## 1
Amino acid sequence: MFDRSPEVIRRLHANISRVLLGKDEVIRLCLTALFAGEHILLEDVPGVGKTLLGKALARSIDGVFQRIQFTPDLMPSDITGSNLFHAEKREFVFYPGPVFANVLLADEINRTTPRTQSALLEAMNEFQVTVENRTYPLPQPFIVIATQNPIEFEGTYPLPESQMDRFLLRISLGYPARDWELQLLAQHQNGEPVERLEPVASAEEILALQAAVRKVRTAREIDEYLLELVHATRRCPELRVGVSVRGMLMLYRSAQAAALLEGRDYVVPDDVQSLAVPVLSHRVIPQGYLHGNQREAVESLVARLIQEVPVPA
C-alpha cells in the first residue's frame, strides 16, 4: 500500500471542499473514480457546479489540465490533434490536441456530434490516441471529467451506450442547502475561488494511489455478493439490458478505491452497496426505453435490487 495515501486523500478532499461547499459525498465519489483510474460523468441542471467541480479536481493535481467546450462544429481532430505540414522540415508533424493532458474537462459533451464524441472512446478506454495509423500514448494519470445537462435537449446529441459505459460513475450534484448557499455568496465577493486553488498532489502521488487500489483485497464472499448484484440486473424483468462484464469490473474496481479512501486494504459490503447506483444505473436499459428520460426510475430500480440481494455476514 502507498504509505502516504491518507495524507494525500485528506489534502485533495480539503482542497476541493474549499470551493464545492456541502458536497462531501460528491467529492468522495470523484476521488473514488480518480483513484480507480477511470472517468466521471457529471449530469445535472445548469448552474449547480458541474464545471466548478471538474476545475477544482483538475487544479488540485499538479499535472496538465485541458478544458474543451464541446460545440456542434467541433471536429475529432480538435480533440486528438492532427498532422500538419512543417515547411522547414518538409514533412508532416503531429501536433497533439487537448486530449494530451492529465485531467481533461469535457464541458457539455452532449453538445457535439456522435462522430466527435467517438474521438474520446479510444482515449478513455485504451489511454492512447490513433491518428492516421500512428498511435500516441496519453500522459499518466489520465482522467476525463465530462459534464452534460439532462434537461435541455435542444441542439444536443445523447451519448451512445458504448460511451456511457466508459464512465465509471454518473453523478449529480443537486442544489446546495440554504446555509451553504449563504456561504457561497460571501465566498464569491472577491471573485471566483476556484481560480485561486493550488495543486496539493503530484501526478506521481496519484499514480501511486492508483497502484495501491489494485492491491486492495476482496474476500470470496464479497466477490460472490458483487456478482449476485450484477446478475440481479440481468434477471430483472423491468430491464431490457442488464449490467455488462465491463460494468461488473468497474463496480469491483470502484469498491477497491472506496476501501482505500476509508483507509482499509480490504473491501466490505458497504463499499459495494454505496457505489452500486452511481456505477451501474447508467449501464442498464429499462423496458420501454426512451433515451435520457428515465434516470430517476432506473436509479430507484437499482437501489431496490440492492435491498433485495442478501448481504454476506
## 2
Amino acid sequence: MRSREYGPDLTPPWKRQQPAPEVPAERDLVVEEAASGFCGAVVRCERTAEGFTVTLEDRLGKHRVFPLVPRGFLLEGRVVTLVRPAGPAPAKGPGRTASGSVAVPGARARVARESRIYVEGRHDAELVERVWGDDLRIEGVVVEYLEGIDDLPAVVADFAPGPGRRLGVLVDHLLPGTKEHRIAARVTGAAVLVVGHPYIDVWQAVKPSSVGIPGWPDVPYEEEWKEGVCRRLGWPVDTPAAWKRILAKVDSYKDLEPALLAKVEELIDFVTAEE
C-alpha cells in the first residue's frame, strides 16, 4: 500500500522542490544565470528552434544567450523562473508615452532638427531616452552627452547656435555660487538655454521609492559619490551595474522627481519652439 503523503515517485512532501516564482524577462531586468554565474541585464527574449531564450548583457557589454528553463536564474539572490513578458494590453483610450504625453500610434521619427539637447553624461542621456525617447523622436530632437561641462564654452562655440539652431543643456547640481553655475552664465543666450537640477548626480532624480530604498544616502564630499552610495546601500561597488539596477526601475515620469521633470520639459519646449 502506498501512503497518501507520498507522490508517485515516493518522495516525501518535505523533500519535494517547491516551484520558483515566475518573473517576466522584461528588458533591463538584472539577473544571474544559475549554472554559469553570468550576471547581466535582459536585452531581449525570443523564440528559437530550441525553444525560448533570453539574451543577457553584462557590465562590459558582453552578450550571452540562455534557455528559459525552470529555476534557471537568480534575482537578487532568489531562485526564479524567467518567463516571456506578457504582450501589451489592448488600449482602451489614447495611449501615453513614458513622459505622460499622448502617444501617436504608427508615427515615424521626424528628421533630426539642427537644434540639440546636451546632457552631462551617459546616465543622464539614458534616463532622458527612457522617459522622453518617444517624444524626442517625434519632435526630431537628438540628445548627446558631454562627459562633464568644464569644456561647455568650447562646445557651444563649436556648435555655433543661432536662428533655427538652438542648444539646450541639462546640468547636474546647478546651484548659485557653484562652478557649474558660473559656466552656465557664460554661455546662456538667445539660442542657448542651460538649466539644471539640484541633485549631485542624476541617480538622485529617481525616486527612492521606485528603487526600493528609504532614501539616497549622504556621502561625504571627499568620497566618490556613486561608490559611496553603493557601499551604504549594501550593493557591490560596481557603478555600471548599480545604474542598470536603478534604470530598470524607471518605467515612466512617475518614477522621477519633479525637479528633473520640469527642467527636461523646459529644454524640449525651448529647442522645438518656432522662431
## 3
Amino acid sequence: MSFISYLVNGISLGSIYALIALGYTMVYGIAKMLNFAHGDIIMVGGFTVFTAMSTEWCPVWLSVVIGIIVCTLLGVIVEKVAYKPLRNASPLAVLITAIGVSYLLQNVALIIFGSASQSFTSVVKNVAPVTIGGVTISMETIISIVVSVIIMICLTFFINKTKAGKAMLAVSEDKGAAQLMGINVNSTISLTFAIGSALAGVASVLLCSSYPQISPYTGSMPGIKAFVAAVFGGIGSIPGAMIGGILLGVIENLSKAYISSQLSDAIVFLVLIVVLIVKPTGIMGKKINEKV
C-alpha cells in the first residue's frame, strides 16, 4: 500500500511537471528557443493567486482565473519585449536573455514579497481525502492528475484539428514556407507563448496547493525539472512532455521514499543523463536529418 501511495503521489507531481514541460516543448517546437523564464512565470502565477485569495472580496475560483490571465499576459509581454527582437539572433543571445528575464522576475518578487516563504492556502481546502483500496489520496492529488489529462487531450485536439494549431505545426516545420503560405508567424509564436504561460498558471495553482508554500524561488527548481522532463520525453513532442513529466515525478517520489530524499534530485538528473546517452532524442523524440 505504501508503494501504491508513493506511486500515486509521484504521478500527481509528474502531472504538474508535465504541464510545465508542455510550455517548454511548445515554445521550443515552434519558436526553436528555450524559455528559461518559464519557471518564474509559475512563481508569478502563484503569488497572483495568493494575493487575490488574501482579499475578502475575491472567491477562490476567481483568484485562479486571475492567476491564469496574469500568467498568459506576462508570457505574451515577455515574448514581445525580450524575445521578438532576437528572433534572428544566435541561440546563445536568446538563452542569455531568457536567463536575464528569469532573474528580473525573481528580483521583482523579492522586492515586493520578500525572501521568506509564505503559506499558501490550497484551492481545494476543507475537502476530505478519498480512500481507494486502502490507499488515502488527497483531493489535490486527484485534481492534479485529472486536470493534466484533460489539458493534454484538449491541447492535442487543438494542435491537430484547429486552424491555429495547424498554423503552429507549419511554423514549427518551416517559418519561411509558412509565411509564404499566408501564416502570420509572429502571431503564431505569440499564441504559443500565451498557451504555454496559461499552462504555467494552471501548474502554479496545482503546485502551490499540493506543496502549500510560496516564495520568489518557488518556480526555479520545478522549472528546471520540467525542462528535464521535456528533454526526457523528447523536446518538441507534446505526448513526450506528458510522459517525461509523469516518469520524472514517479522517479523522484520513489527515490525520496526508498533511497534518499537528499539524493532524489541527483538521481533525477542521473536518469536524464542515462536516457540521453542511450537515446539522445528522448523517449518520443525523432531524429531529424538536415539537407545540405
